[in-house]
Design brief:
The protein is α/β, with parallel strands linked by helices. It contains 15 helices and 13 strands. Helix 12 packs parallel to helix 15.
């Protein structure tokens, strides 16, 4: 097979000088096929997320709840892929259709560990539109969505109009404190019962992990609603933050749920690569649907498996979104490396990161470290999102403005600060009257530790660069806080 970026080791024998000539094309393609928001600013060369199209290993990246730079290994693999796609550098030619088929197979394998039907999407919002279109086709009646607080999920956009109504579930109390999971479930069950009594169908948005590490409706509550309303309720699991385990996603698919995943965030691929996973039975039902195609998100034909292209791709759609394919190929390269790591080592890296980040933040008087996720127990993957609440200022607008300015300052050089580095963290999230910023681990971070250990270092020394980066981040944060 060997069509993914993760398999592109050794450049397929291509000449490195010839590959280097492709770099400007790769820059353009990685920023293509995702809308204007993904294009870098002409002056700074950075996107709105602070990322660049080239590797930036000299910068500190604890921003896996939003976006991070492409790694050197993924960049090199993408160059090799581009050489194959463009028949350059004496590389073995690559079929576009076979490449996209392989990307979808790789996504199913990495996220679910099993077969699943995969629809590619440039953004999580586009993947949600696919899910809505599927729910409308299968349930064939007015749709009520029950979704968690939009601010804490990835680019959620509420439905509107007569056919779709979105009801929001708050994950926090008005003072910003997390709600108990049982209370969220009880509210979801009540909303679901009322919607069903009105004659509507249900689309439940099950937020596995939010940008601050919280969760929405539980899988148990979703199962209760699904059993109470067979044929009238579907569930969409939002696993974009990458903190759901493969056995959980496999179980979701087995229960007939759609699953939204991202190659960005924890996976470490460039921003703007998402996918919707469908159970095989659901995909077969859609493929057998003889109703004329309806409105669906704009996309390329190869984004979809062949059996669904007639339903969800316009006849005028382009065959392929090369930029999306390359971004996903980079993400799969990172996932290949991450899942090669021994599970015990992955756990140790995430536990050490979380413990050290919390300890360093707790020593700063201008921060409050939010407690570990309620009910999560001993879960290093979910706890690798460390949520830090800014103690001042108060008030929604002022707090968000201050947090945004602070985040931007961390990502700029700080003249006069010894050991300074550009530091990237998560976007601001409002928690009551105060704003929070997150510091989070990623798959590439764990892979880098594993590579250092393969080179002969003990675990403590292999983790040392991560801990130094955390120390640099908090020292810079402290310096900025001291300067007002």
């Amino acid at each position: 097979m060997a069509l993914r970026a993760g398999a592109a080791v050794g450049f397929y024998g291509a000449d490195r000088a010839a590959l280097a000539l492709l770099a400007p094309q790769l820059d353009m393609l990685l920023a293509a096929g995702g809308g204007a928001r993904i294009w870098p600013d002409p002056a700074s060369g950075r996107t709105a997320w602070g990322t660049t199209s080239r590797p930036a290993g000299h910068e500190i990246w604890f921003s896996s709840t939003s976006a991070q730079a492409i790694s050197q290994s993924a960049w090199d693999a993408n160059l090799a892929l581009l050489a194959r796609l463009t028949r350059n550098a004496h590389a073995q030619p690559l079929s576009l259709s076979a490449w996209f088929d392989d990307i979808r197979l790789g996504i199913a394998r990495h996220f679910a560990g099993a077969q699943a039907c995969v629809l590619l999407a440039a953004t999580a919002a586009q993947a949600r539109l696919f899910a809505r279109a599927i729910a409308m086709r299968l349930l064939r009646r007015r749709l009520v969505e029950i979704a968690s607080t939009p601010a804490e999920s990835a680019h959620f956009e509420a439905g509107g109009g007569a056919d779709i109504v979105t009801l929001s579930l708050d994950l926090r109390h008005p003072d910003g404190e997390p709600r108990e999971r049982a209370d969220i479930d009880a509210e979801a069950l009540a909303l679901g019962e009322a919607a069903l009594e009105s004659g509507a169908a249900l689309l439940l948005h099950l937020l596995d992990t939010s940008k601050t590490g919280l969760s929405g409706i539980s899988r148990g509550a979703a199962r209760a609603i699904e059993r109470a309303a067979p044929g009238r309720a579907l569930t969409l699991v939002d696993a974009c933050e990458g903190r759901a385990y493969r056995n959980e996603i496999r179980g979701d698919l087995e229960h007939g749920r759609m699953v939204l995943v991202s190659g960005s965030h924890f996976s470490g691929g460039p921003a703007f690569c998402a996918a919707l996973l469908l159970p095989a039975e659901m995909a077969a039902e859609l493929a057998a649907d003889n109703i004329a195609p309806g409105a669906a998100p704009a996309g390329a034909r190869f984004d979809l498996p062949p059996a669904l292209r007639g339903l969800f791709a316009s006849s005028a759609a382009p065959p392929a979104n090369i930029g999306l394919g390359l971004r996903w190929a980079a993400a799969l390269c990172e996932l290949d490396a991450y899942f090669r790591i021994d599970p015990d080592l992955r756990r140790a890296v995430l536990e050490t990161f979380s413990r050290k980040a919390r300890a360093m933040a707790a020593r700063r008087v201008f921060l409050t470290v939010e407690a570990a996720v309620p009910g999560a127990g001993d879960d290093p993957l979910r706890e690798s999102i460390v949520t830090l609440i800014l103690n001042a200022p108060a008030g929604p607008r002022a707090a968000l403005d201050f947090a945004g300015a602070l985040r931007a300052a961390l990502a700029r050089p700080c003249p006069g600060l010894a050991g300074d580095a550009i530091c990237h963290i998560g976007h601001p999230i409002l928690t009551g009257e105060r704003a929070a910023l997150s510091v989070s681990a990623s798959a590439p971070m764990a892979s880098a530790v594993a590579r250092r250990m393969e080179g002969g270092l003990a675990f403590e020394r292999a983790m040392a660069p991560v801990l130094r980066d955390l120390d640099t981040l908090f020292c810079k944060w402290e310096a900025l806080a001291g300067n007002g």
